[in-house]
Structure formats: structure tokens, C-alpha cells
Design a protein that fits this description.
Layout lengths: L17 H8 L24 H13 L1 H18 L1
Amino acid sequence: MLFPKKGKGKRPEVPENAVSRVASSLPYVAVAPAVAEIKKSDIPKSDKSAYTTLRKARSDGRLVGVREKRAKEKAEAEANKK
């Protein structure tokens, strides 16, 4: 149903059954909400903070080569000792 843009003139009458005709022609299926709200108290407490976890990961990434070298030297020292 189209109505005039500027609202000038008489608007056409909307039949009472027009809404039910449109509603019956459109498929509507009720869907459960995708996101459920939870309280802050429902979130499990963590003993580590996000900052500590990220800091440890960054440190581990930076020191990978140094630790491998140290482990390799230690293994060679053990092999030479025997």
C-alpha cells in the first residue's frame, strides 16, 4: 500500500483485514535469542589476570631461541662429561 509522500490529499482507507493478510503471507518463526545475558557473579574466577597471561606468552616467545641454545649446551656438556 502506498501513501503520498507529502501527505497532501486524502489518504486511502486501509481495510481492517489488510494486516492479517500481510501477516499470514509472511513466514514468521520464533527463534530463541542467540546471546543470553549472565551476571558477573556467574563468570568463573581466574587466579591469573589477562595481563599476566599475555606478558608470559610474550616473554616465552622472545626467549625461545635462548632457551633452546641453553638446553643444547647443557646436553652437550652432559655428553662430554661421560
